[in-house]
Specification:
four-stranded antiparallel beta sheet; single chain; transferase; 41% helix; TIM Barrel; Aldehyde Oxidoreductase, domain 3; 281 residues
Length: 281
């Protein structure tokens, strides 16, 4: 993750949560009081986003020390300590909820991504995400997919040309859309086209696109269509794929499966921050 972008985002999140400060903590404890706290897993899953603890707390107080006990991408079980935090109790508790919310969200996405990869059980197919991310959290959610072993599709609208159904309809065809796009973007960007049937597939192949996405097609049709795609064109399938159906895509022949559910429907992986009453590591 881009550290500067992460800092800017965390600044916004801290301001949203505590623009008037943490009235509870400041009312109970003096500014000089220090603590030792442990972040523990409450469920089994894949960790993602641990660096947010160090980055986030450094924004609040440079006297806070964070020790990571595991690494992103590592599996944890209930009770495992993933990090230890030492410093002024005011700032440790001020940052707790924002940082845990993010790490829980990211770890949930990493966990679902890993489960999708394991359930598919086809090393010839890479699992990637989509743009179905939460506004304001894309940076974090895309990173979480990588923590789980997946890959990122385009990060934003300027990363590549992706011609979808509405572009095709408005341009009156795939060939017209591809020709117009190519005349503007030059040679440095890839062109991907979403196809819904064999006629569109043949048109996309004739247009010489870089990537063909099979949209909302069953595995047996995808396997049939992949055989019609020349070497050198990357293939992708997307739409209607879930954890319950992903195993049926094993061996279908595409290079990528892009999955919206790994970001938009992932449950959190629960963590808790507990102060050590004895102040021990």
């Amino acid at each position: 993750m881009n550290r500067l972008a992460v800092k800017r985002a965390l600044d916004r999140f801290f301001l949203e949560d505590g623009f008037n400060g943490d009235i509870t903590t400041t009312a109970i404890f003096p500014p000089s009081e220090k603590c030792v706290a442990h972040v523990k897993a409450k469920a089994r899953g894949i960790v993602s986003g641990l660096s947010l603890l160090e980055i986030g707390y450094s924004l609040l107080d440079d006297h806070i020390h964070v020790e990571e006990r595991v690494k992103d991408g590592q599996e944890v079980r209930p009770g495992d300590v993933i990090a230890t935090i030492q410093g002024p109790v005011h700032h440790v508790l001020f940052g707790e909820r924002v940082l845990l919310n993010l790490i829980q969200r990211m770890s949930g996405i990493a966990t679902v991504t890993r489960k999708a990869i394991d359930t598919l059980n086809d090393p010839s197919i890479r699992i990637c995400d989509t743009r179905k991310t939460t506004p304001g959290l894309k940076l974090f959610e895309k990173y979480a997919v990588r923590s789980g072993g997946g890959y990122n599709h385009r990060l934003n609208l300027s990363d590549m040309v992706l011609i979808k159904d509405n572009h095709i309809a408005q341009a009156k065809g795939i060939r017209q859309a591809v020709t117009q796009a190519r005349s503007v973007i030059g040679h440095s960007l890839k062109i991907e086209v979403e196809v819904e049937n064999r006629e569109q597939l043949e048109e996309a192949v004739d247009a010489g696109v870089d990537i063909i996405m099979f949209d909302n097609m069953p595995p047996h049709i995808i396997k049939e269509y992949v055989a019609l795609v020349p070497d050198g064109i990357v293939t992708e399938a997307s739409g209607g794929i879930s954890l319950q159906t992903i195993a049926s895509y094993r061996g279908c022949g595409v290079d990528y499966l892009s999955l919206g559910f790994i970001t938009h429907s992932a449950p959190i992986l629960d963590f808790t921050l507990l102060i050590d009453e004895e102040g021990e590591q």
